[in-house]
Request: fold
Amino acid sequence: MKTVALAVFLAATAATTPTVQETNDQMAAQVLKSIAGHENEPAEQVFMDIRIEKLKPTPAARFVSIMNGGYSRALGVACTHCHDEKDFSSDAKRPKRAAREMAAMHTKINEALQAMTELDKPKEKRFINCGTCHRGKIDPRD
Reply:
């Protein structure tokens, strides 16, 4: 009987504890609500301190989607892994600074991929993103 009770308790607990992605989705929804009416403006005009050049002109709602569906999901982390919950523009956390360096690296790799001419299908668009290496984990070596 105790095993059944424990299984029921664990199932109930698991059902009430949000996953990392559910937590991120809730944060993204809050951000989108806070920028209502500005979703199509460039991210650099809506948010503070965007330093990744290719993301500056991105519509603000798309920027939130990239952060939530791209960066956080690719590393399997909560938004607060990189961001200070009270000040998302803060650079106090090392992972946020590292993410900028990684974004610069992946941009260079993508540029090199596009310049390659000796591939089987050289005109086929090839690219990498965070998930290519990280596969849902902070450390891509895992």
